Structure formats: structure tokens, C-alpha cells
């Protein structure tokens, strides 16, 4: 697939549109992984990812039925959240978009002695 500029890489808009068509034509679920832009690194306060942090976010946000972020507060050296909850060993799955359902956060806890995570 060639992008409008002629190189062999495609824009997020083209990719997400074609993935959406493929999923509908084949009646399958497509899971796509996207990189976040660097704004989250420089943003003060809450470092949790937002839909606007997706690279090519307009097309991803428009075409996706669901957007789920994985967020580790401990990565940013956050050990206690605003509610006083210890989060150094937490992985939050954030349902940021859900076309046919609810939004929310699922917090997964890990025992760092048995389930290592690395950056």
C-alpha cells in the first residue's frame, strides 16, 4: 500500500480505515496497537493516557470501536494516587472508548516478587 506521498508507509488514516473495512467484510475482531505521542511525557499532573495522545488520533479515535490503554503509574514514579491508594504495583487497563458499552478502569495488581515487568 502506498501513501499519497509515494513511499511504502501508510498514514494512520489509511490503515485504520482499511482495518475497519477488513473487520466488517470478514466479520472478525481486529486488534491494532498504536504508539502514543510524547505529549504525555511533558504533561504536568496526571500522566494517564488520553485519546488525544494517540498518534494519528483523529482517525484511530473515529474508526475504533474500543480503545484500551495500559497504564502503569509506577513507571512515572507515582507510588500513591490521589485517593491514597498504593499504585506502585498496579497496571490499569483504561477503557477510553467503548462504542457499545461503558467506560472505566480495571486495576490489575501484581506481586513484584513473582511477576516482573520491565521497561
3D architecture notes:
- The protein has 119 residues and is of the alpha+beta class.
- It has one domain (12-109).
- 22% of the residues lie in helices and 18% in strands.
- It has three helices and three strands; from the N terminus they run H-H-H-E-E-E.
- The chain has helices at 12-26, 39-42, 57-63, and strands at 66-71, 90-98, 104-109.
- A three-stranded antiparallel beta sheet has the order 1-2-3, with no helix packed on it.
- Helix 1 packs parallel to helix 3 (57-63).
- The protein is elongated, with a radius of gyration of 17 Å.
* Sheet with the most strands, sense and barrel status: 3 strands, antiparallel
Rounded mean pLDDT score: 84
Q: pLDDT under 50 segments (min length 5)?
A: none
Q: Roughly how many Å apart are the termini? A: 32 Å
Main β-sheet, spatial strand arrangement: 1-2-3
What string, H for helix and E for strand, traces the elements in order?
Answer: HHHEEE
Q: Please tell me what the overall shape is.
A: elongated
Amino acid at each position: 500500500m502506498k501513501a499519497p506521498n509515494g513511499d511504502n508507509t501508510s498514514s494512520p488514516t489509511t490503515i485504520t480505515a482499511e482495518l475497519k473495512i477488513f473487520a466488517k467484510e470478514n466479520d472478525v475482531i481486529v486488534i491494532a496497537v498504536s504508539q502514543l505521542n510524547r505529549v504525555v511525557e511533558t504533561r504536568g499532573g496526571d500522566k494517564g493516557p488520553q485519546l488525544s495522545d494517540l498518534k494519528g488520533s483523529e482517525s484511530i479515535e473515529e474508526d475504533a470501536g474500543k480503545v484500551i490503554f495500559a497504564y502503569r503509574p509506577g513507571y512515572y514514579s507515582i507510588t500513591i494516587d490521589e485517593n491514597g491508594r498504593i499504585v506502585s504495583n498496579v497496571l490499569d487497563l483504561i477503557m477510553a472508548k467503548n462504542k457499545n458499552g461503558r467506560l472505566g478502569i480495571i486495576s490489575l495488581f501484581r506481586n513484584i516478587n513473582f511477576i516482573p515487568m520491565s521497561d
